[in-house]
From TrEMBL:
This is DUF726 domain-containing protein. It is found in: Membrane. Residues 104-114 have a biased composition (Basic and acidic residues). GO terms for cellular component: membrane. Keywords: Membrane, Transmembrane, Transmembrane helix. SUPFAM superfamilies: alpha/beta-Hydrolases. Residues 1-31, 61-122, 151-175 are annotated as: Disordered. The chain crosses the membrane at residues 283-306, 326-346, 447-467.
């Protein structure tokens, strides 16, 4: 790597007088960039931002959002329950069997409510633990920043004339229209903190943000809290989220490129241990983390990492010497670099795997951009400081495990979670057959005609024949629904045991994939595992909309919690009719009583439950997701237009057939 040669073997101290441009670049630090007053402003900005984050955490437990009086929600209606019966005359035996089926559904609703209550941790205890974890993290951040900006070298350098950062050979980052729209939405979610530092030049603000990134990494883990902090700081410094992603990408590249130069002589035993763990698991987690990512030893010298990262940062005006100092112990330990990116693979205990192995199959993280069998070099190129995991909720073919998630951009490292392939394929086939059946046509027509609401499905009496057909899809849905809860618990355990390293993870899922996320977050909350998950998006989620549940989920997510729903998702309403009326269904309605939970009504676009799989990119664009592959988004739009055209043609044919039946 050319940038590795830019760093001399002898460290150089900052000086106000330099002889060459290279000397100036290497000497650049926050001390030479900022005055004493400006460095005090930087400390104040970080302190104010962490205080805002803490206040939001407290509000997540204590504050109930005010409802929008302008929002007319379907659940506010009061229909006449006596008119909800669709029962048709039949003999006594059929009526008795139908009543027995309805009784089973009522019992299932009761069981759902009891299971939800037992799975949700007690609010006060969870609040204390969440605040304790946050305060410890916040204290470490403030102390680390204070060590840097108030160090003796920094104070001495501050006596000299302030130097602007050296100019980059690369063009200044220019966000496109989509990124600008995402930035605008982000600024509403994370309102900027007013600071004089926002008046500095763009290059100076970028250099400050990059220095903070290195300081956060020096804590030896890039926690979800740290990622949310730097994203909030970016909005205050008017730096695009897209540019921040590029900084993270470049930093990951520099760290890994430097780490790859270490002495691999002692790495064999560590790699063998990782491989043994993978074989013991038999579920594919270690292949994701990549034990072959880099050789893992402690022999990496600090100047080497400083050269790799510092060489890249020099393009933004921060010198290699300062970069090494800001990275701290991370600049001198290949073990820490490997651990950051998950070089040791999954480390779940055999006892934990034995507990779930009988109930969970096909559990693995699959790279969205590539294969687990790619060369070490290709895997190396995919590594990022962040991870995003997409989770599919039903399948008709195996490639749909990864297909919906190709729209995820490369600012993070995207994976698809493969779980219970057979159960999801059984569900997908059952759904496809059911939707095309006359039984579903009848049910949907009655739903639309009577405006039956999701929360009132327990009062709906269906004809015996329809109930019998419904069981053909109820059974695979019930099986997959149960497996989703187990898969969520295994996912939580994998994150706790650093299967993806010390990196923040975002989770995106639709249908039962969203239920996996729901189960995972509740498991993390019960185990008080904070700082692991950055943001989550649940689309068409067959999970309760209960406020207490969502407050618990919110407590283990440091960034955004997004619920995407559609009031026109009749399939979800029908499948989840056995849910408790009191709990509600998140995929059909807004989450009103949980502070910090964003709800997006996609009823106009999502006219059926199966559309989510082909609308991931459109939905993520709508919610302001900051990391999307534009080329894949265009491909998705072409596929979606084709599907919508087919649906319209099918509707016309169905209307024509209905008209012909009426005439006859």
């Amino acid at each position: 790597m050319s940038f590795l040669s830019d760093f001399g073997s002898k460290p150089r101290h900052s000086s106000p007088k330099t002889d060459t441009q290279n000397d100036q670049a290497d000497d650049q630090s926050l001390a030479t960039l900022l005055t004493l007053e400006q460095r005090a402003e930087l400390s104040l900005l970080i302190t104010s931002t962490t205080e805002t984050m803490r206040n939001d955490l407290v509000k997540g437990f204590d504050q109930i959002p005010k409802s929008d009086p302008q929002k007319v929600h379907a659940s506010a209606a009061e229909p006449d329950l006596s008119k909800l019966s669709l029962e048709q005359p039949g003999d006594g035996s059929q009526e008795a069997e139908a009543e027995a089926l309805q009784q089973q559904e009522r019992e299932a609703a009761k069981h759902e409510e009891e299971a939800t209550v037992s799975a949700t941790p007690k609010s006060e205890a969870l609040k204390r633990s969440a605040l304790e974890f946050f305060d410890k993290w916040s204290e470490n951040v403030v102390l680390r920043v204070g060590e840097v900006v108030n160090s003796r070298d920094e104070r001495e350098n501050a006596q000299h004339a302030r130097k602007p950062p050296s100019q980059s050979n690369n063009p200044q980052y220019a966000p496109n229209e989509w990124v600008k729209a995402a930035d605008a939405r982000l600024a509403k979610i994370y309102p900027p903190v007013q600071t004089p530092l926002a008046n500095l030049s763009h290059l100076e603000r970028s250099t400050i943000l990059k220095a903070i990134l290195l300081m956060l990494l020096s804590l030896e883990a890039y926690r979800a809290h740290s990622r949310t902090l730097i994203l909030r700081l970016a909005t205050s410094l008017h730096i695009s989220a897209g540019e921040l992603s590029k900084m993270e990408k470049d930093t990951a590249f520099g760290l890994l490129a430097a780490a790859s130069k270490m002495d691999a002589g002692d790495s064999a035993s560590a790699a063998q241990k990782a491989s043994a763990t993978a074989r013991k698991w038999k579920v594919g987690l270690a292949s994701v983390a990549g034990a072959a990512l880099i050789g893992v030893t402690g022999g990496l010298a600090a100047p080497l990492v400083a050269a790799g990262v510092g060489g890249l940062l020099g393009g933004l005006g921060l010198g290699a010497t300062a970069a090494a100092g800001y990275l701290g112990a991370l600049a001198s330990s290949g073990v820490l670099v490997g651990g950051l990116f998950g070089a040791y693979g999954g480390r779940m205990t055999g006892q934990m795997m034995d507990k779930y192995a009988k109930e969970i199959e096909d559990f693995a993280f699959l790279p969205v951009k590539g294969s687990v069998n790619d060369s070490e070099e290709k895997q190396h190129e995919r590594r990022r400081l962040r991870v995003t995991i997409g989770i599919t909720g039903w399948l008709t073919k195996e490639e749909e495990v990864t297909q919906p998630w190709r729209v995820l951009g490369d600012g993070s490292e995207p994976f698809a979670l493969r779980w219970e392939l057979q159960a999801l394929q059984n569900l997908g086939n059952a759904l496809s057959n059911f939707i095309s059946s006359k039984a579903w046509g009848y049910i949907k027509k009655e739903i639309i005609k009577r405006t039956i609401l999701a929360g009132l499905w327990s009062a709906l009496m269906l004809p015996f024949g329809i109930l019998k057909v419904a069981k053909l899809v109820d059974s695979p849905f019930g099986v997959a629904k149960l497996r989703a809860m187990k898969a969520g618990e295994v996912l939580a355990d994998a994150l706790i045991h650093k299967a993806q390293g010390e990196r923040p993870v975002s989770l995106v899922g639709h249908s039962l994939g969203a239920r996996v996320i729901y189960s995972c977050l509740l498991a993390l909350a019960r185990r008080e595992a904070f700082g692991l998950v950055e943001s989550v998006v649940l689309m068409g989620a067959p999970v309760p909309s209960d406020d207490e549940v969502w407050r618990s989920m919110r407590s283990v997510v440091t960034g955004r919690v997004i619920n995407v729903y559609s009031e026109n998702d009749y399939i979800l309403a029908f499948l989840y009719r056995t849910s408790s009326v009191q709990l509600g269904i998140a995929g059909l309605q807004e989450i009103k009583g949980a502070y910090g939970v964003e709800s997006y009504d996609m009823s106009q676009d999502v006219t059926g439950h199966l559309k989510y799989q082909n609308m991931v990119g459109r939905i993520l664009t709508e919610v302001g997701w900051t990391d999307i592959d534009e080329e894949e988004l265009k491909r998705e739009q072409v596929v979606l237009r084709h599907i919508e055209a087919q649906e319209k043609q099918q509707e016309k044919e169905a209307e024509k057939e209905a008209g012909d039946d009426a005439k006859s």
